[in-house]
C-alpha cells in the first residue's frame, strides 16, 4: 500500500545514499590530488617535463673607431698641444636566421601511475639554421642554443657549426651552450643541432621571444598517434597528412612576422580518478530516475516494495562506485568498470528476484539498471557528450513515466482505507 510515510522513507533512503556518494567523492578527489602531488614530480624527474624548444639566439658584435681630440699641457710652460686618440665603440645587434629547417619525431608513451595517466613521449630533434651576414662590418657572431629543460637528459647531442661538431668542447651554463666565431660581410654560417630526449604533455618550437621575422622557415613534426591538438596560442600547421598510424604536420613559410609558437599537445587518456569523481557526482541522478520508475511500476503492477527494499537497492548502486573507485587503482579502467557493473547488477537482480519475482527482476529491474546505472556511467566515456547523453536519458525517462502513469488516478492511490477496507477520500 502506498502511503505518504512510505514515500518519506524512500526519500530518506535516497538522501542517505547521496550523503554516502558525497563522502566517497570527497575521498576519491583527495586520493587523486595527493597522488598527483606525489607522483607528478617523480614522473617529471624520471621522464622530463613539457618541452618548449627555442630557436638559437644570434647576436652580432662589432667595433667602430672614433677619433677623440683633447688638449694637453706642452713641455714648455704655458704651451699646449692637440692630442688625437682612437677609441673603439662596442656595438651589438640581435640577428635572425636566413633559413630554418626543424624536424621533431615524437613517439607517444602513456603511463599509468595510481589514479592518473601521464602523456609521456620520446622525441628526436633535428634543427638546421643558416645565417647570411649581410652587415657591412666584420665582427663576431655569438651563437647560443638553449635546451628546453635545463635538468633533462639529451642523448646523442650534436652541435655542428660549419661542418665541425663542437658538442664535446661545449659546457652548458644554465641549460645553454654558446660559441662565438668571426664573421665578415657576405659570409654564411651553418648551424645544426641534434638530440634525443623525453618529455610530457606538450612539445613546441619557439622561433623567437616576441614578434620575429621568419624567412625560409620549415618545421615538420611527425607523430605516431591520431588524436592531434595544438597548444593554446600557437600557429596551426600549413599542411598535414597521414603518416602510418599518425600524422606529419608541416609549418612552411617564405616570409612571416609572428610571435607565436608551433607545436603539438599529446593526447590524454581518461583519467581514472577524474572519471570516478564524475561517476560519483552523477550517481544521485541515476538512482533518482531508477527509484521513480520503480515506484511507478510498483503502483501499476500493485507490487509491495518496502522502503527497506529501496535501501538495499541504494546500497547495491553505491557498491558500483565504491568498487570502481578502488579497483581502478589496480586494473585497467575497462576491467574495473565491468567488475563494478557486474557486481551491482547481480546484487540488485538477485535481490529483487526474491522480493518480487524472477520475471520482474530479470526484465524490468535489470533493464532499468542497465539504462540508469551502466548507461549513465558509460556516458562519461564519451568526452564532450556526457551532459547531452544524460539529458536525453532523463527526458526519455520522463516521457516513459508520463505514458505509464497517464491513466493512474493518484487520488485513489493515496486514498485512506477505513477499518473495514473501504476507501475514503483524503
**Major sheet: order of its strands?**
8-7-10-5-4-12-14-13
Derived from helix and strand composition plus strand pairing, the structural class reads alpha+beta
The poorly predicted ranges are 417-426
**What is the domain tally?**
2
Shape: elongated
- Separation of termini? 15 Å
Which strand-content bin applies to the residues?
35-45%
Work out the helicity level.
25-40%
What integer value in Å does the Rg equal? 36 Å
The tally of strands reads: 17
Task: Count every helix, treating DSSP H or I runs of 4 or more residues as helices.
Answer: 7
Q: Topology as H/E string?
A: HEEEEEEEEEEEEEEEHHHHHHEE
- Biggest beta sheet summary: 8 strands, mixed
Helix and strand layout, with pairings?
Elements: H1 4-47, E1 51-54, E2 57-73, E3 80-95, E4 99-113, E5 116-132, E6 139-146, E7 155-161, E8 164-165, E9 176-183, E10 188-200, E11 202-206, E12 212-223, E13 239-243, E14 246-258, E15 262-265, H2 272-300, H3 307-327, H4 333-355, H5 358-378, H6 386-405, H7 410-413, E16 416-417, E17 423-424
Parallel strand pairs: 1-11, 4-12
Antiparallel strand pairs: 2-3, 2-6, 4-5, 5-10, 6-9, 7-8, 7-10, 11-15, 12-14, 13-14, 16-17
Amino acid at each position: 500500500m502506498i502511503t505518504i510515510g512510505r514515500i518519506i522513507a524512500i526519500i530518506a533512503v535516497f538522501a542517505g545514499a547521496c550523503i554516502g556518494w558525497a563522502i566517497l567523492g570527497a575521498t576519491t578527489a583527495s586520493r587523486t590530488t595527493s597522488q598527483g602531488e606525489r607522483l607528478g614530480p617523480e614522473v617529471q624527474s624520471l621522464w622530463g617535463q613539457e618541452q618548449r624548444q627555442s630557436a638559437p639566439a644570434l647576436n652580432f658584435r662589432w667595433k667602430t673607431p672614433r677619433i677623440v681630440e683633447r688638449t694637453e699641457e706642452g713641455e714648455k710652460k704655458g704651451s699646449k698641444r692637440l692630442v688625437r686618440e682612437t677609441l673603439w665603440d662596442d656595438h651589438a645587434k640581435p640577428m635572425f636566421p636566413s633559413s630554418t629547417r626543424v624536424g621533431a619525431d615524437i613517439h607517444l608513451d602513456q603511463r599509468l601511475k595510481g589514479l592518473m595517466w601521464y602523456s609521456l613521449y620520446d622525441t628526436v630533434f633535428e634543427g638546421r639554421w643558416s645565417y647570411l651576414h649581410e652587415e657591412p662590418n666584420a665582427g663576431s657572431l655569438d651563437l647560443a642554443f638553449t635546451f628546453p629543460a635545463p635538468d633533462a637528459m639529451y642523448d646523442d647531442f650534436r652541435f655542428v657549426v660549419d661542418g665541425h661538431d663542437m658538442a664535446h668542447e661545449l659546457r652548458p651554463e644554465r641549460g645553454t651552450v654558446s660559441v662565438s666565431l668571426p664573421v665578415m660581410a657576405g659570409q654564411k654560417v651553418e648551424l645544426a643541432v641534434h638530440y634525443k630526449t623525453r618529455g610530457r604533455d606538450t612539445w613546441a618550437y619557439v622561433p623567437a621571444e616576441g614578434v620575429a621575422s621568419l624567412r625560409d622557415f620549415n618545421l615538420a613534426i611527425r607523430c605516431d598517434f591520431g588524436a592531434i591538438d595544438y597548444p593554446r596560442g600557437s600557429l596551426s600547421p600549413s599542411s598535414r597528412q597521414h603518416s602510418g598510424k599518425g600524422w606529419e604536420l608541416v609549418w612552411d613559410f617564405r616570409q612571416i612576422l609572428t610571435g607565436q609558437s608551433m607545436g603539438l599537445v599529446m593526447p590524454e587518456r581518461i583519467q581514472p580518478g577524474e572519471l570516478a569523481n564524475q561517476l560519483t557526482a552523477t550517481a544521485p541522478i541515476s538512482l533518482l530516475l531508477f527509484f521513480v520508475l520503480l515506484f511507478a511500476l510498483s503502483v501499476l503492477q500493485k507490487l509491495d516494495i518496502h522502503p527497506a527494499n529501496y535501501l538495499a537497492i541504494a546500497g547495491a548502486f553505491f557498491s558500483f562506485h565504491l568498487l570502481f573507485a578502488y579497483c581502478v587503482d589496480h586494473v585497467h579502467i575497462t576491467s574495473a568498470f565491468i567488475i563494478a557493473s557486474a557486481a551491482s547488477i547481480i546484487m540488485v537482480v538477485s535481490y529483487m528476484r526474491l522480493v518480487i519475482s524472477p520475471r520482474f527482476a530479470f526484465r524490468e529491474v535489470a533493464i532499468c539498471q542497465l539504462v540508469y546505472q551502466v548507461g549513465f556511467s558509460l556516458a562519461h566515456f564519451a568526452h564532450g557528450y556526457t551532459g547531452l547523453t544524460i539529458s536525453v536519458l532523463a527526458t526519455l525517462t520522463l516521457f516513459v513515466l508520463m505514458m505509464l502513469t497517464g491513466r493512474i488516478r493518484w487520488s485513489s492511490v493515496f486514498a485512506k482505507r477505513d477499518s473495514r477496507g473501504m476507501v475514503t477520500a483524503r
